[in-house]
Amino acid sequence: MLSKVKQAIFMRRLEKMLSNYQINVMHYIPGRIRISSPYWTGNSKIIETLMPILKMEDKILSVRHTPETGTLLVEYDATPDVQSAQIEAWFELVQKVHNNVITKEVTHL
């Protein structure tokens, strides 16, 4: 039961962290997280920039984008050596890339 409580707390922390960027956690189970943003539909520059960066991470096994729905599925190694701090670091990276691309697009208008 404690594991489920920890997962719920972690999920809330992730949602709060990402919500400032209009990024939503759609689904989370250890080893798999699906996130979405209205900015990621179609051929998003954010996704074009983000996917290669995430794929370079050692413990991330795959990253898949669904352009029709604006979702990103991240599958990662769910062994105990991947701690919540590592996952949070990945999503801080998502925030940073998301914000940087949007800032560049807005300043070029």
CATH architectural name: Alpha-Beta Complex
What is the straight-line distance between the termini? Answer: 51 Å
Output the CATH topology.
Aspartate Aminotransferase, domain 1
Could you say which overall geometry the principal axes of the C-alpha atoms support? Answer: globular
Average per-residue pLDDT, rounded, comes to: 86
Oligomer: single chain
Rg result: 14 Å
Enumerate the spans where pLDDT stays under 50 for 5 or more consecutive residues. none
Strand order of the largest sheet: 1-2-4-3
Count of the separate structural domains: 1
The helicity comes to 40-55%
Largest sheet properties: 4 strands, antiparallel
Count of strand segments: 4
Can you count the helices? 3
In sequence order, what are the helices and strands, one letter per element? HEEHEEH
What is the CATH superfamily label?
Answer: Aspartate Aminotransferase, domain 1
Strand residues, percent? 15-25%
- What is the structural class? alpha+beta
CATH class: Alpha Beta
Organism: Guptibacillus hwajinpoensis
Protein name: Metal ABC transporter ATPase
Can you offer a commentary on this structure?
By secondary structure, the chain is α+β, with helices and mostly antiparallel strands. The chain has a single domain, classed as Aspartate Aminotransferase, domain 1. Helices cover 49% and strands 22% of the residues. It comes from Guptibacillus hwajinpoensis. Pfam families: HMA_2. This is Metal ABC transporter ATPase.
